[in-house]
Design goal:
182 residues, 88% helix, Ferritin, mainly alpha, 5 helices
Length: 182
Amino acid sequence: MESNRLKHLYVEELKDLYSAESQMVKALPKMIKAATSEDLRAGFTEHLEQTKGHVSRLEEIFKALGESPKGKKCKGMEGLIKEGGEMIEEDPAPEELDAGLISAAQRVEHYEIAGYGCVSTYAKLLGEDEAESLLRETLEEEKKTDAKLTQLAENINLAAAGSEEEEEEENRMARKAKTARA
């Protein structure tokens, strides 16, 4: 692949990530508000601040390239955020909501990890050493966030499973009582 074609792809992918991160800066406050777990809210709050830093790093890279970060809407992130929003609107039980928020957030993290992995490789191939360093820093933060979400999920998913079991037991007892009355 010619260097100028790779550079074009690199810039386009950076614009996609810039759009994705900008969308997350707007979406995370809604996730913070919806979360019922204090630990999950704290994790989302921390990641919101990190995400603002990701946007700043991307702006720094664009400035060094003499390019504008604007002009592209990340449809992948738009879809992931929409799915997360739909789950919030369904108004599930608190434990189920938190488990669903973690699932939505991890999909976002995996999407971002893939994107940052690609652009950091492009930066390396293009000799963009400073950009590569910034992109790898962001990549590592995204991986750490994913790992933290996995840790949170261990307890929250158990709580969601427990609430489902309780609900099933209540339904079984109600059916049993109804059958006994009949």
